[in-house]
Amino acid sequence: MFDQLLVAGIFTLLVCSLVFTRWRAAWVFVGAMLLAYFSGLVDTAEVLAKASNTGVITLMLLLLVSIGLEKLSWLTRVSGKLITPSYVGSLLRLGSATAFFSAFVNNTAVVATLAHTVRSNRHHPASRLLIPLSYAAILGGTMTLIGTSTNLIVSSFLEDATGQGLAFFDFFLVGASVTVLGMFAILLGSRLLPQVPTEALDINEYVIEAEVSADSELIGKTIIGNKLRDLEDLFLVEIVRGNYLISPVAPHEYIEAGDKLIFSGDIKQVTALDKFDGLSLFAVEEGLLQENMMEVIVMPNAAIEGRTVKESAFRAVFDAAVVGMRRGGKRLSGKLGNITIQAGDNMMLAVGPDFNERKNLDKNFVVIDEVIGEVKTTPFQNYFITATLLVVIALASLEVIPLIKGIAFLLVCMLASRVVKASELRRRFPFELWLIISSALTLSAALTNSGLVTLLADALHSNLAVLGPYAALAGIYLGTLVLTELMTNNAAAALSFPIAFGLAESYGLSHMPFVMAVAYGASASFLTPYGYTTNLMVQNLGGYEFRDYMRAGLPLSIVYSITVITMIPLVFPF
After folding, report:
1. Other beta carbons less than 10 A from residue 276's beta carbon
2. How many Cα atoms occupy the beta-carbon half-sphere of 221 within 13 Å?
3. How far apart are CA 137 and CA 100, in angstroms?
4. Helix 469-486 crosses helix 452-464 at what angle (to 10 degrees)?
5. Three-class SS state of 385
């Protein structure tokens, strides 16, 4: 009884920490795992076994392989042909291509690649296409084992519990159904999205800071006299002078030494400030700006979140300088260095030669526009890696070879053909995800060892006995869906799986429907910008507000849920 109460307390603390704090999920899971370990709920052998679980290793290899798949040029080649004068046609073409590629490539990379195409098109406002782009990527990821890390996590849990993980195309029938029907729901919901002109998204959002040096020729002259009103697509909105903020800026305001000039405008026109004597951009060294510009989005739970730009020490930590910044279509105020960074913020960085080698990039940013460091694959590399991938998928699907062996071979081929570098794999190794899964597997063992999972499953079974297994399936799905809106999808899947598996055993039914309910429930994040990385990526790019996700996502969430609950029992009978 004591062990059960202890495990219940650990899990309550775990859930509360994930929902109500800003602590990183990886360290929350590790902390809970250590509590279980030092309390004697699991032994050393179990902890080590979970950390080296075959399913976990397969997941790590697949995520490393996805780094190479992101570089293949197929998506770039077709991106320019997706948007036509017809809005419906463009939406269907864009959504179909996004869903297809997201089934095999990390959906974050797919959205990052196509977002540039969407923003640069002149047929339709980007705000009518970017949320549908994110939703299509989420739907596409549900069709295969490697489409999303959530599917891989569920497979790892299943392999740990039964010795047999999920096959590559186990998700396809249900995933293809929700993708097809979901596209019609996206088409319906997209009509509720705002029509923000593309020009309004590109201009008047970034805040750019420039400092007047002590020997500048601008000193002692007015704004008009210095022709600071004549800049194309850049507007002087504020002057920070010591502890004073001058806003709005009068045309006859005189410039003084040390003034911080705050511009708002098109970040692409920032080089126009170079022509003014003694005017230097915030934290940007001379010459760095001209060639090495990169646009990024701050990730949820990034190490820099909650800090000011100055406190983040960009130069030392990332070998980069912040040129401009924007947030949700709102104009930021004050000195650039004093702005507190939030998840979803867009930043334009001037990056140094060592930027791409920093190990902390993926924990903090999603790159949207990359000027340097972009590796373009050759035709041979494209065809060779694609053919190898197809062969691996075919052999693994036919159970000729284990998936882990095929993926390991594919990774070796990528290294041999120089599609990826060893240094790149080290930098992007998903260490925190490995910690989450290993810790979650250990906590699942603690649940089982204490008997709490059996107790919970039996309690759920007795309460749902009158309604039958369909109600239990729907309950698991909806519970996971709620969790994924409150925390990360990976954490939601990790928490829901033990209960779902135990519930299946209490009914004496096949575990597959309940396992799949967890996988699809954890991917059903359409109502907020924070539940899924791609939703957050497009928030600033499209100038969206929270309500836009509710409007467009609610029809999709309803269609998705009905389709999942209907299809799972048909494809995976009880």
Report:
1. 19
2. 14
3. 8
4. 120
5. helix
Q: What is the mean pLDDT of residues 23-44?
A: 85
pLDDT for 317-362, tens place per residue? Answer: 887 777 778 776 565 666 777 788 887 788 878 777 777 777 777 7
Rg over alpha carbons for the chain, rounded to the nearest Å, is 26
- In what helix (H) or strand (E) does residue 280 lie, and over which residues does it extend? strand 279-281
Beta-strand relationship, 320-326 and 346-351: antiparallel
Q: Which amino acid is at 81?
A: K
Amino acid symbol at 128: R
* Residues 538, 552: Cα–Cα separation, whole Å: 13
DSSP string, 59-127: HHHHHHHHHHHTT-SHHHHHHTTS--S-HHHHHHHHHHHHHHHHTTS-HHHHHHHHHHHHHH-SSS-GG
CA distances to 77, 352, 353, 448, 450 from 455, rounded to whole Å, are: 54, 57, 57, 10, 10
* 420/272 Cα distance (integer angstroms): 37
Q: Which of 94, 104, 98 is nearest to 385 (CA)?
A: 104
Q: Please, are residues 178 and 95 in contact by the beta-carbon 8 Å criterion? A: no
Alpha helix (H) ranges present in 221-337? Answer: 288-291, 314-318
Residue 148 CB neighbours (<10 A): 30
Q: How far is CA 256 from the centre of its chain?
A: 44
pLDDT at 23 over 80: no
pLDDT in tens, 140-165: 999 988 888 888 888 888 888 888 88
Record the tokens describing residue 408, joined without a space.
Answer: 């390991």
Please enumerate in sequence order all residues whose Cβ is within 8 A of that of 21, keeping only pairs 6 or more positions apart, or say none: 28
Cβ-based neighbour number of residue 89 at 10 Å: 12
Taking CA atoms, 292 is separated from 353, 370, 404, in Å, by 9, 9, 38
Q: Which two tokens stand for residue 542?
A: 């499209």
Q: Which pTM was predicted?
A: 0.75
Q: Are 283 and 322 in contact (CB under 8 A)?
A: yes
| d(C-alpha 29, C-alpha 26), whole Å | 5
What is the spatial distance between Cα 408 and Cα 63, in angstroms, rounded to a whole number?
11
Contacts 24+ apart (CB under 8 A), 181-184: 181/559, 181/560, 181/563, 182/135, 182/136, 182/139, 182/556, 182/559, 182/560, 182/563, 183/92, 183/95, 183/96, 183/99, 183/136, 183/139, 184/559
Encoding tokens for residue 194? 């705002």
